[in-house]
Specification:
Elements lengths: L1 H9 L4 H14 L9 H28 L7 H36 L10 H34 L4 H44 L25 H8 L4 H8 L7 E5 L7 H15 L6 E6 L8 H10 L4 E6 L6 H7 L1 H19 L9 E7 L1 H9 L2 H4 L6 E5 L6 H7 L19 E4 L16 E5 L5 H4 L30 H12 L13 H12 L6 H12 L12
Parallel strand pairs: 1-3, 2-3, 2-4, 4-5, 5-7, 6-7
Length: 558
Protein backbone atom coordinates (compact mmCIF):
# COMPACT_ATOMS: atom_id res chain seq x y z
CA UNK A 1 0.00 0.00 0.00
CA UNK A 2 2.88 2.33 0.84
CA UNK A 3 4.43 1.58 -2.54
CA UNK A 4 1.15 2.36 -4.32
CA UNK A 5 0.86 5.65 -2.44
CA UNK A 6 4.41 6.65 -3.35
CA UNK A 7 3.80 5.68 -6.97
CA UNK A 8 0.63 7.74 -7.01
CA UNK A 9 2.45 10.79 -5.63
CA UNK A 10 5.50 10.53 -7.88
CA UNK A 11 3.55 9.41 -10.92
CA UNK A 12 5.05 7.90 -14.08
CA UNK A 13 8.73 8.87 -13.86
CA UNK A 14 10.61 8.96 -17.17
CA UNK A 15 14.22 7.73 -17.14
CA UNK A 16 15.07 9.22 -20.58
CA UNK A 17 13.75 12.61 -19.43
CA UNK A 18 15.80 12.33 -16.24
CA UNK A 19 18.91 11.63 -18.34
CA UNK A 20 18.24 14.80 -20.33
CA UNK A 21 17.88 16.63 -17.03
CA UNK A 22 21.29 15.28 -15.94
CA UNK A 23 22.80 16.55 -19.19
CA UNK A 24 21.40 20.01 -18.41
CA UNK A 25 22.75 19.72 -14.86
CA UNK A 26 26.21 18.77 -16.13
CA UNK A 27 26.20 21.70 -18.56
CA UNK A 28 25.30 24.07 -15.70
CA UNK A 29 28.55 23.09 -13.96
CA UNK A 30 30.59 24.70 -16.72
CA UNK A 31 31.74 28.27 -15.98
CA UNK A 32 29.94 31.38 -17.18
CA UNK A 33 30.82 35.05 -16.51
CA UNK A 34 30.72 35.15 -12.69
CA UNK A 35 32.18 32.52 -10.29
CA UNK A 36 29.55 30.48 -8.41
CA UNK A 37 29.62 28.95 -4.94
CA UNK A 38 28.08 25.55 -4.08
CA UNK A 39 24.76 27.00 -2.85
CA UNK A 40 24.17 28.99 -6.01
CA UNK A 41 25.35 26.12 -8.19
CA UNK A 42 22.96 23.76 -6.42
CA UNK A 43 19.98 25.99 -7.14
CA UNK A 44 21.04 26.49 -10.76
CA UNK A 45 21.62 22.75 -11.24
CA UNK A 46 18.24 21.83 -9.78
CA UNK A 47 16.39 24.39 -11.92
CA UNK A 48 18.02 23.41 -15.22
CA UNK A 49 17.70 19.68 -14.44
CA UNK A 50 13.96 20.22 -13.96
CA UNK A 51 13.84 22.18 -17.22
CA UNK A 52 15.67 19.35 -19.01
CA UNK A 53 13.14 16.87 -17.66
CA UNK A 54 10.31 19.15 -18.77
CA UNK A 55 11.80 19.51 -22.27
CA UNK A 56 11.98 15.73 -22.53
CA UNK A 57 8.35 15.41 -21.46
CA UNK A 58 7.20 18.01 -23.98
CA UNK A 59 9.14 16.35 -26.82
CA UNK A 60 7.62 12.99 -25.88
CA UNK A 61 4.15 14.48 -25.75
CA UNK A 62 4.52 16.05 -29.19
CA UNK A 63 5.96 12.81 -30.58
CA UNK A 64 2.96 10.83 -29.35
CA UNK A 65 0.49 13.51 -30.42
CA UNK A 66 1.94 13.39 -33.95
CA UNK A 67 1.54 9.61 -33.90
CA UNK A 68 5.21 9.09 -34.74
CA UNK A 69 6.63 5.54 -34.82
CA UNK A 70 8.00 4.09 -31.57
CA UNK A 71 10.94 1.78 -31.02
CA UNK A 72 10.29 -1.75 -29.81
CA UNK A 73 10.53 -1.98 -26.02
CA UNK A 74 13.70 -4.13 -26.05
CA UNK A 75 15.57 -1.75 -28.37
CA UNK A 76 14.33 1.28 -26.44
CA UNK A 77 15.56 -0.23 -23.15
CA UNK A 78 18.98 -1.04 -24.60
CA UNK A 79 19.28 2.44 -26.07
CA UNK A 80 18.29 3.99 -22.74
CA UNK A 81 20.97 1.94 -20.96
CA UNK A 82 23.66 3.05 -23.42
CA UNK A 83 22.59 6.69 -23.05
CA UNK A 84 22.62 6.34 -19.27
CA UNK A 85 26.21 5.08 -19.29
CA UNK A 86 27.34 7.90 -21.59
CA UNK A 87 25.51 10.57 -19.55
CA UNK A 88 26.92 9.30 -16.26
CA UNK A 89 30.47 9.27 -17.66
CA UNK A 90 30.09 12.83 -18.95
CA UNK A 91 28.49 13.89 -15.67
CA UNK A 92 31.37 12.42 -13.66
CA UNK A 93 33.96 14.13 -15.91
CA UNK A 94 32.27 17.51 -15.57
CA UNK A 95 32.03 17.12 -11.80
CA UNK A 96 35.72 16.35 -11.65
CA UNK A 97 36.59 19.41 -13.75
CA UNK A 98 34.17 21.96 -12.29
CA UNK A 99 36.36 23.02 -9.37
CA UNK A 100 39.31 23.61 -11.71
CA UNK A 101 37.14 25.68 -14.04
CA UNK A 102 35.67 27.79 -11.24
CA UNK A 103 39.11 28.39 -9.68
CA UNK A 104 40.51 29.40 -13.06
CA UNK A 105 37.75 32.02 -13.38
CA UNK A 106 38.30 33.16 -9.80
CA UNK A 107 42.03 33.60 -10.46
CA UNK A 108 41.26 35.76 -13.51
CA UNK A 109 39.26 38.05 -11.22
CA UNK A 110 41.87 38.11 -8.46
CA UNK A 111 39.87 35.93 -6.07
CA UNK A 112 41.44 33.20 -3.90
CA UNK A 113 40.79 29.61 -5.01
CA UNK A 114 38.20 27.38 -3.39
CA UNK A 115 39.56 24.30 -1.64
CA UNK A 116 36.65 22.03 -2.53
CA UNK A 117 33.72 21.93 -4.91
CA UNK A 118 31.15 21.30 -2.17
CA UNK A 119 29.70 18.40 -4.13
CA UNK A 120 27.52 17.13 -1.29
CA UNK A 121 25.94 20.54 -0.79
CA UNK A 122 25.45 21.03 -4.53
CA UNK A 123 23.71 17.68 -4.98
CA UNK A 124 21.55 18.07 -1.86
CA UNK A 125 20.31 21.52 -2.91
CA UNK A 126 19.86 20.45 -6.52
CA UNK A 127 17.79 17.41 -5.56
CA UNK A 128 15.63 19.57 -3.30
CA UNK A 129 15.05 22.17 -6.01
CA UNK A 130 14.35 19.46 -8.59
CA UNK A 131 11.84 17.80 -6.23
CA UNK A 132 10.01 21.08 -5.66
CA UNK A 133 9.90 21.81 -9.40
CA UNK A 134 8.78 18.24 -10.14
CA UNK A 135 6.04 18.53 -7.52
CA UNK A 136 4.79 21.76 -9.06
CA UNK A 137 4.78 20.04 -12.42
CA UNK A 138 2.70 17.20 -11.00
CA UNK A 139 0.20 19.70 -9.62
CA UNK A 140 -0.11 21.38 -13.02
CA UNK A 141 -0.55 17.99 -14.69
CA UNK A 142 -3.28 17.07 -12.18
CA UNK A 143 -5.03 20.36 -12.87
CA UNK A 144 -4.92 19.60 -16.59
CA UNK A 145 -6.45 16.13 -16.06
CA UNK A 146 -9.26 17.54 -13.91
CA UNK A 147 -10.15 20.17 -16.50
CA UNK A 148 -9.82 17.69 -19.35
CA UNK A 149 -12.25 15.27 -17.70
CA UNK A 150 -14.81 18.05 -17.45
CA UNK A 151 -14.38 18.83 -21.14
CA UNK A 152 -14.71 15.12 -22.04
CA UNK A 153 -18.34 15.32 -21.00
CA UNK A 154 -19.27 17.90 -23.63
CA UNK A 155 -16.79 17.52 -26.53
CA UNK A 156 -14.55 15.07 -28.40
CA UNK A 157 -11.29 14.00 -26.73
CA UNK A 158 -8.92 15.77 -29.13
CA UNK A 159 -10.71 19.07 -28.71
CA UNK A 160 -10.86 18.57 -24.93
CA UNK A 161 -7.10 17.99 -24.82
CA UNK A 162 -6.35 21.19 -26.71
CA UNK A 163 -8.79 23.33 -24.69
CA UNK A 164 -7.51 21.74 -21.49
CA UNK A 165 -3.99 22.94 -22.25
CA UNK A 166 -5.28 26.41 -23.11
CA UNK A 167 -7.29 26.58 -19.89
CA UNK A 168 -4.31 25.57 -17.74
CA UNK A 169 -2.07 28.17 -19.42
CA UNK A 170 -4.66 30.90 -18.83
CA UNK A 171 -5.11 29.89 -15.17
CA UNK A 172 -1.36 29.84 -14.54
CA UNK A 173 -0.97 33.23 -16.22
CA UNK A 174 -3.68 34.79 -14.06
CA UNK A 175 -2.37 33.25 -10.83
CA UNK A 176 1.22 34.24 -11.60
CA UNK A 177 0.22 37.72 -12.63
CA UNK A 178 -1.74 38.25 -9.46
CA UNK A 179 1.15 36.96 -7.38
CA UNK A 180 3.60 39.31 -9.08
CA UNK A 181 1.17 42.19 -8.68
CA UNK A 182 0.86 41.58 -4.94
CA UNK A 183 4.63 41.45 -4.52
CA UNK A 184 5.05 44.62 -6.56
CA UNK A 185 2.53 46.50 -4.44
CA UNK A 186 4.23 45.29 -1.26
CA UNK A 187 7.64 46.31 -2.55
CA UNK A 188 6.42 49.74 -3.61
CA UNK A 189 4.76 50.28 -0.24
CA UNK A 190 7.90 49.26 1.64
CA UNK A 191 10.04 51.42 -0.62
CA UNK A 192 7.82 54.44 -0.10
CA UNK A 193 7.77 53.95 3.67
CA UNK A 194 11.54 53.61 3.70
CA UNK A 195 11.89 56.75 1.63
CA UNK A 196 9.67 58.69 4.01
CA UNK A 197 11.69 57.42 6.98
CA UNK A 198 14.83 58.62 5.26
CA UNK A 199 13.29 62.04 4.81
CA UNK A 200 12.48 62.16 8.53
CA UNK A 201 16.05 61.19 9.43
CA UNK A 202 17.68 63.69 7.09
CA UNK A 203 20.89 65.33 8.33
CA UNK A 204 20.90 69.12 8.73
CA UNK A 205 20.65 71.08 5.50
CA UNK A 206 23.89 72.64 4.22
CA UNK A 207 24.66 76.02 5.75
CA UNK A 208 26.48 77.21 2.63
CA UNK A 209 23.92 79.15 0.52
CA UNK A 210 25.71 77.99 -2.63
CA UNK A 211 24.77 74.37 -1.91
CA UNK A 212 21.65 72.58 -3.09
CA UNK A 213 19.17 72.13 -0.24
CA UNK A 214 20.39 75.13 1.77
CA UNK A 215 18.07 77.83 3.07
CA UNK A 216 18.80 79.86 -0.09
CA UNK A 217 18.23 76.89 -2.41
CA UNK A 218 15.13 76.45 -4.56
CA UNK A 219 15.12 72.71 -3.74
CA UNK A 220 13.67 71.53 -0.42
CA UNK A 221 16.26 69.54 1.55
CA UNK A 222 13.68 67.18 3.08
CA UNK A 223 12.41 66.01 -0.30
CA UNK A 224 15.76 65.26 -1.87
CA UNK A 225 16.11 61.80 -0.29
CA UNK A 226 19.16 59.96 1.03
CA UNK A 227 20.93 59.25 -2.32
CA UNK A 228 20.70 62.89 -3.35
CA UNK A 229 21.78 64.18 0.04
CA UNK A 230 24.81 61.87 -0.02
CA UNK A 231 25.72 63.19 -3.46
CA UNK A 232 25.41 66.82 -2.39
CA UNK A 233 27.33 66.45 0.87
CA UNK A 234 30.13 64.25 -0.48
CA UNK A 235 32.84 64.82 -3.04
CA UNK A 236 36.01 66.93 -2.97
CA UNK A 237 35.88 70.61 -2.12
CA UNK A 238 38.17 73.34 -3.46
CA UNK A 239 40.77 72.75 -0.73
CA UNK A 240 41.01 69.00 -1.43
CA UNK A 241 41.27 69.55 -5.18
CA UNK A 242 43.88 72.29 -4.83
CA UNK A 243 45.90 70.13 -2.44
CA UNK A 244 46.03 67.40 -5.08
CA UNK A 245 46.64 69.53 -8.18
CA UNK A 246 48.72 72.33 -6.69
CA UNK A 247 46.53 74.84 -8.55
CA UNK A 248 43.72 77.17 -7.45
CA UNK A 249 40.35 75.38 -7.44
CA UNK A 250 36.63 76.02 -7.06
CA UNK A 251 34.03 74.13 -5.06
CA UNK A 252 32.25 71.88 -7.59
CA UNK A 253 28.53 72.52 -8.05
CA UNK A 254 26.25 69.54 -7.43
CA UNK A 255 22.51 69.92 -8.08
CA UNK A 256 20.13 67.08 -7.30
CA UNK A 257 16.32 67.03 -7.41
CA UNK A 258 14.54 64.27 -5.48
CA UNK A 259 11.44 62.59 -6.76
CA UNK A 260 9.44 64.19 -3.95
CA UNK A 261 10.60 67.68 -5.00
CA UNK A 262 8.24 67.75 -7.98
CA UNK A 263 5.05 66.10 -9.14
CA UNK A 264 6.13 65.39 -12.72
CA UNK A 265 9.35 64.74 -14.59
CA UNK A 266 9.07 68.14 -16.28
CA UNK A 267 8.56 69.97 -12.97
CA UNK A 268 11.65 68.31 -11.49
CA UNK A 269 13.68 69.14 -14.61
CA UNK A 270 12.67 72.81 -14.54
CA UNK A 271 13.43 73.02 -10.82
CA UNK A 272 16.89 71.56 -11.51
CA UNK A 273 17.48 74.15 -14.24
CA UNK A 274 16.44 77.01 -11.95
CA UNK A 275 18.85 75.78 -9.26
CA UNK A 276 21.65 75.47 -11.82
CA UNK A 277 21.08 79.07 -12.84
CA UNK A 278 20.94 80.21 -9.21
CA UNK A 279 24.30 78.59 -8.43
CA UNK A 280 25.99 79.89 -11.58
CA UNK A 281 26.48 76.46 -13.14
CA UNK A 282 26.38 77.88 -16.68
CA UNK A 283 29.43 80.00 -15.88
CA UNK A 284 31.53 76.91 -15.20
CA UNK A 285 33.88 75.21 -17.67
CA UNK A 286 32.05 71.85 -17.68
CA UNK A 287 28.41 70.88 -17.13
CA UNK A 288 27.39 67.22 -16.77
CA UNK A 289 23.77 66.03 -16.97
CA UNK A 290 23.80 62.71 -15.12
CA UNK A 291 21.16 60.00 -14.76
CA UNK A 292 21.19 58.10 -11.42
CA UNK A 293 20.52 54.41 -10.86
CA UNK A 294 17.07 53.14 -9.88
CA UNK A 295 17.26 54.21 -6.24
CA UNK A 296 18.65 57.60 -7.23
CA UNK A 297 22.21 56.67 -6.23
CA UNK A 298 25.05 58.65 -7.78
CA UNK A 299 28.34 56.78 -8.02
CA UNK A 300 31.06 58.80 -6.24
CA UNK A 301 33.73 56.91 -8.18
CA UNK A 302 32.32 58.39 -11.37
CA UNK A 303 31.91 61.99 -10.25
CA UNK A 304 34.78 62.69 -7.86
CA UNK A 305 37.60 62.08 -10.39
CA UNK A 306 36.24 64.40 -13.07
CA UNK A 307 35.94 67.20 -10.51
CA UNK A 308 39.65 66.84 -9.73
CA UNK A 309 40.48 66.93 -13.45
CA UNK A 310 38.81 70.30 -13.99
CA UNK A 311 39.98 72.02 -10.79
CA UNK A 312 36.41 72.06 -9.49
CA UNK A 313 35.29 74.30 -12.36
CA UNK A 314 32.41 71.94 -13.03
CA UNK A 315 28.71 71.45 -12.31
CA UNK A 316 26.75 68.19 -12.24
CA UNK A 317 22.96 67.89 -12.22
CA UNK A 318 20.71 64.86 -11.71
CA UNK A 319 17.05 64.12 -10.98
CA UNK A 320 15.64 61.08 -9.17
CA UNK A 321 12.85 59.09 -10.80
CA UNK A 322 12.41 56.09 -8.49
CA UNK A 323 12.94 54.75 -4.97
CA UNK A 324 13.31 51.18 -6.23
CA UNK A 325 16.49 49.20 -6.71
CA UNK A 326 17.65 49.14 -10.32
CA UNK A 327 16.31 45.64 -11.22
CA UNK A 328 12.83 46.55 -9.95
CA UNK A 329 12.96 50.00 -11.50
CA UNK A 330 14.01 48.41 -14.79
CA UNK A 331 10.92 46.18 -14.78
CA UNK A 332 8.33 48.41 -13.12
CA UNK A 333 9.38 51.99 -13.77
CA UNK A 334 11.21 51.84 -17.08
CA UNK A 335 9.16 54.63 -18.63
CA UNK A 336 9.54 56.79 -15.53
CA UNK A 337 13.32 56.72 -15.82
CA UNK A 338 13.27 57.39 -19.53
CA UNK A 339 10.81 60.28 -19.12
CA UNK A 340 12.85 61.89 -16.35
CA UNK A 341 16.16 61.65 -18.22
CA UNK A 342 14.54 63.03 -21.37
CA UNK A 343 12.91 65.93 -19.53
CA UNK A 344 16.14 66.89 -17.76
CA UNK A 345 18.27 66.76 -20.90
CA UNK A 346 15.63 68.59 -22.89
CA UNK A 347 15.31 71.44 -20.36
CA UNK A 348 19.03 71.85 -19.68
CA UNK A 349 20.07 71.58 -23.32
CA UNK A 350 17.26 73.92 -24.35
CA UNK A 351 18.57 76.62 -22.02
CA UNK A 352 22.24 75.91 -22.79
CA UNK A 353 21.76 76.37 -26.51
CA UNK A 354 20.48 79.93 -25.96
CA UNK A 355 23.82 80.94 -24.43
CA UNK A 356 26.88 82.31 -26.21
CA UNK A 357 28.86 79.32 -27.56
CA UNK A 358 32.10 81.11 -26.67
CA UNK A 359 31.31 81.44 -22.97
CA UNK A 360 28.87 78.66 -22.09
CA UNK A 361 30.17 75.44 -20.46
CA UNK A 362 30.97 72.30 -22.39
CA UNK A 363 27.96 70.01 -22.00
CA UNK A 364 28.23 66.24 -21.36
CA UNK A 365 25.80 63.48 -20.42
CA UNK A 366 26.56 60.52 -18.20
CA UNK A 367 24.94 57.49 -16.59
CA UNK A 368 25.79 54.19 -14.94
CA UNK A 369 23.81 50.99 -15.46
CA UNK A 370 20.10 51.87 -15.58
CA UNK A 371 21.17 55.51 -15.59
CA UNK A 372 23.20 54.82 -18.74
CA UNK A 373 20.13 53.33 -20.42
CA UNK A 374 17.90 56.30 -19.59
CA UNK A 375 20.65 58.79 -20.50
CA UNK A 376 21.18 57.12 -23.89
CA UNK A 377 17.44 57.12 -24.52
CA UNK A 378 17.28 60.83 -23.71
CA UNK A 379 20.25 61.69 -25.93
CA UNK A 380 18.30 62.29 -29.12
CA UNK A 381 21.05 62.80 -31.66
CA UNK A 382 18.61 64.17 -34.23
CA UNK A 383 17.51 66.91 -31.80
CA UNK A 384 21.17 67.73 -31.12
CA UNK A 385 22.32 67.95 -34.72
CA UNK A 386 21.96 71.74 -34.94
CA UNK A 387 23.70 72.38 -31.59
CA UNK A 388 25.27 69.15 -30.34
CA UNK A 389 26.51 68.37 -26.86
CA UNK A 390 30.25 67.91 -26.43
CA UNK A 391 30.17 64.26 -25.47
CA UNK A 392 28.81 61.36 -23.46
CA UNK A 393 30.21 58.78 -21.07
CA UNK A 394 28.07 55.73 -20.34
CA UNK A 395 29.18 52.95 -17.97
CA UNK A 396 27.71 49.46 -17.74
CA UNK A 397 24.98 50.00 -20.36
CA UNK A 398 22.22 47.36 -19.85
CA UNK A 399 21.72 44.92 -22.72
CA UNK A 400 18.26 46.27 -23.82
CA UNK A 401 19.68 49.75 -24.56
CA UNK A 402 18.71 50.51 -28.16
CA UNK A 403 21.51 53.00 -28.85
CA UNK A 404 24.14 50.68 -27.36
CA UNK A 405 22.89 47.76 -29.45
CA UNK A 406 22.96 49.89 -32.60
CA UNK A 407 26.52 51.04 -31.96
CA UNK A 408 27.70 47.54 -31.03
CA UNK A 409 26.45 46.20 -34.33
CA UNK A 410 28.50 48.79 -36.23
CA UNK A 411 31.78 47.28 -34.96
CA UNK A 412 34.65 46.84 -37.35
CA UNK A 413 35.11 43.23 -38.53
CA UNK A 414 37.67 41.42 -36.42
CA UNK A 415 37.26 43.61 -33.35
CA UNK A 416 35.92 41.75 -30.26
CA UNK A 417 32.29 42.11 -29.27
CA UNK A 418 33.20 43.02 -25.68
CA UNK A 419 35.61 45.79 -26.76
CA UNK A 420 34.67 46.73 -30.32
CA UNK A 421 36.18 49.31 -32.64
CA UNK A 422 33.65 51.67 -34.22
CA UNK A 423 34.80 53.25 -37.48
CA UNK A 424 37.99 55.25 -37.05
CA UNK A 425 37.26 56.05 -33.40
CA UNK A 426 36.69 59.76 -33.97
CA UNK A 427 33.14 59.64 -32.54
CA UNK A 428 32.74 56.49 -30.42
CA UNK A 429 35.27 54.50 -28.40
CA UNK A 430 35.11 51.73 -25.82
CA UNK A 431 36.89 51.29 -22.50
CA UNK A 432 37.18 48.46 -19.99
CA UNK A 433 39.42 47.38 -17.14
CA UNK A 434 42.21 46.88 -19.71
CA UNK A 435 41.55 49.88 -22.01
CA UNK A 436 40.83 53.56 -21.35
CA UNK A 437 39.55 54.59 -24.79
CA UNK A 438 42.72 56.46 -25.73
CA UNK A 439 43.72 54.23 -28.65
CA UNK A 440 42.06 54.79 -32.02
CA UNK A 441 43.15 55.19 -35.65
CA UNK A 442 41.92 58.81 -35.77
CA UNK A 443 41.82 61.79 -33.45
CA UNK A 444 38.61 62.80 -31.71
CA UNK A 445 36.02 64.79 -33.63
CA UNK A 446 33.70 67.49 -32.32
CA UNK A 447 31.67 65.08 -30.16
CA UNK A 448 33.24 62.39 -27.95
CA UNK A 449 31.34 59.28 -26.81
CA UNK A 450 32.84 56.53 -24.62
CA UNK A 451 31.24 53.31 -23.39
CA UNK A 452 32.83 51.69 -20.32
CA UNK A 453 31.95 48.02 -20.14
CA UNK A 454 33.66 45.13 -18.41
CA UNK A 455 33.95 41.98 -20.48
CA UNK A 456 32.56 39.92 -17.57
CA UNK A 457 29.50 42.14 -17.01
CA UNK A 458 26.32 40.09 -17.64
CA UNK A 459 24.14 43.18 -17.23
CA UNK A 460 25.76 44.35 -20.47
CA UNK A 461 26.27 41.02 -22.23
CA UNK A 462 23.20 39.04 -21.23
CA UNK A 463 21.50 37.83 -24.39
CA UNK A 464 17.76 36.95 -24.32
CA UNK A 465 18.26 34.87 -27.46
CA UNK A 466 20.80 32.63 -25.73
CA UNK A 467 17.89 30.33 -24.99
CA UNK A 468 18.60 28.81 -28.42
CA UNK A 469 21.79 30.39 -29.85
CA UNK A 470 25.20 31.40 -28.56
CA UNK A 471 25.70 35.11 -27.78
CA UNK A 472 27.95 37.01 -30.18
CA UNK A 473 30.70 37.45 -27.58
CA UNK A 474 30.87 33.70 -27.05
CA UNK A 475 32.05 33.27 -30.63
CA UNK A 476 35.16 35.41 -29.96
CA UNK A 477 38.31 34.30 -28.11
CA UNK A 478 37.70 34.81 -24.37
CA UNK A 479 38.71 38.13 -22.81
CA UNK A 480 41.20 38.30 -19.95
CA UNK A 481 38.64 37.80 -17.19
CA UNK A 482 36.62 35.18 -19.08
CA UNK A 483 37.06 31.42 -18.77
CA UNK A 484 38.49 29.42 -21.66
CA UNK A 485 35.95 26.73 -20.82
CA UNK A 486 32.81 28.70 -21.68
CA UNK A 487 30.38 26.28 -23.27
CA UNK A 488 27.09 27.11 -24.95
CA UNK A 489 24.07 24.91 -24.43
CA UNK A 490 20.52 25.98 -25.29
CA UNK A 491 18.39 26.94 -22.27
CA UNK A 492 21.20 26.23 -19.79
CA UNK A 493 23.34 29.19 -20.93
CA UNK A 494 20.30 31.46 -20.65
CA UNK A 495 19.85 30.55 -17.00
CA UNK A 496 23.58 30.78 -16.28
CA UNK A 497 23.67 34.34 -17.61
CA UNK A 498 20.47 35.28 -15.78
CA UNK A 499 22.02 34.06 -12.53
CA UNK A 500 25.25 35.89 -13.40
CA UNK A 501 23.27 39.15 -13.48
CA UNK A 502 22.10 38.57 -9.92
CA UNK A 503 25.68 37.83 -8.81
CA UNK A 504 27.40 40.56 -10.85
CA UNK A 505 26.93 43.36 -8.29
CA UNK A 506 29.07 41.42 -5.80
CA UNK A 507 31.93 40.76 -8.22
CA UNK A 508 35.43 42.08 -7.43
CA UNK A 509 35.98 45.72 -8.46
CA UNK A 510 36.81 45.89 -12.15
CA UNK A 511 34.73 42.82 -13.02
CA UNK A 512 31.08 41.96 -13.38
CA UNK A 513 28.93 45.02 -12.72
CA UNK A 514 31.28 46.42 -10.05
CA UNK A 515 32.49 49.59 -11.79
CA UNK A 516 34.94 51.62 -9.75
CA UNK A 517 36.79 54.92 -9.79
CA UNK A 518 40.11 53.63 -11.13
CA UNK A 519 38.50 52.71 -14.48
CA UNK A 520 36.41 55.89 -14.78
CA UNK A 521 39.44 58.16 -14.87
CA UNK A 522 40.84 57.33 -18.32
CA UNK A 523 37.47 57.57 -20.11
CA UNK A 524 36.66 60.88 -18.40
CA UNK A 525 39.99 62.24 -19.67
CA UNK A 526 39.11 61.13 -23.20
CA UNK A 527 35.57 62.56 -23.09
CA UNK A 528 36.16 65.90 -21.34
CA UNK A 529 39.76 66.59 -22.45
CA UNK A 530 40.85 68.57 -19.36
CA UNK A 531 43.26 71.42 -20.18
CA UNK A 532 46.91 70.63 -19.59
CA UNK A 533 46.18 67.12 -18.38
CA UNK A 534 48.94 64.56 -18.90
CA UNK A 535 49.33 60.80 -18.66
CA UNK A 536 51.29 61.37 -15.45
CA UNK A 537 48.30 63.23 -14.01
CA UNK A 538 46.10 60.26 -14.85
CA UNK A 539 48.40 57.88 -12.99
CA UNK A 540 48.60 60.23 -10.00
CA UNK A 541 44.82 60.47 -9.83
CA UNK A 542 44.48 56.69 -10.08
CA UNK A 543 46.94 56.28 -7.22
CA UNK A 544 45.03 58.91 -5.24
CA UNK A 545 41.83 56.98 -5.95
CA UNK A 546 43.37 53.66 -4.92
CA UNK A 547 44.49 55.27 -1.65
CA UNK A 548 40.86 55.96 -0.86
CA UNK A 549 39.62 59.41 -1.86
CA UNK A 550 35.88 59.30 -1.27
CA UNK A 551 35.33 55.94 -3.01
CA UNK A 552 37.93 53.41 -3.99
CA UNK A 553 35.26 51.01 -5.17
CA UNK A 554 32.05 52.45 -6.50
CA UNK A 555 29.62 49.55 -6.38
CA UNK A 556 25.95 50.46 -5.91
CA UNK A 557 25.27 49.67 -2.23
CA UNK A 558 21.55 49.50 -2.87
Amino acid sequence: MTQNLASRIVGPFSVPCLLLGLVFFAASLTPSLIPRGPEVQGVLGGVVAALGYLVGQIVGLLWRAADMPRLPRRIASALTLVCAVVVLVVFAWVLGSSLTWQNDLRARMGLPPEDALGLGKILLIAVGVFAVAYGLGRLVASLFRVIRRRFYRVMPKRRANVLGVVAVVVILFVVTREGIYDRVVTTLDEGYETAQALFDLAPPAPADPNRTGSAASLIDWGGIGAPGRDFILSGPDAAAISSFTGRPALDPIRVYVGRANGGTARERAELALAELVRQGAFEREVLIVASPTGTGWMDPGAHDPVEYMHDGDIATVAAQYSYLQSPLALILETNTGLEQATALQDVVHGYWRTLDPETRPRLYVHGLSLGAWSSMYATNLFRLLDDPIDGAFWAGPPFPSALWNYVQNQREPGSPWVLPRIGDGSLVRYASHVADGSEAPADWGQMRIVFLQYSSDPVVFYDPYSVWRAPDWMRDPPAEDMSEHLFFMPIVTQFQLALDMALSFGAPPGHGHAYYAHDYIGPWVQVTNPAGWTAADTERLRAHCDNGFQAGCSNDPT
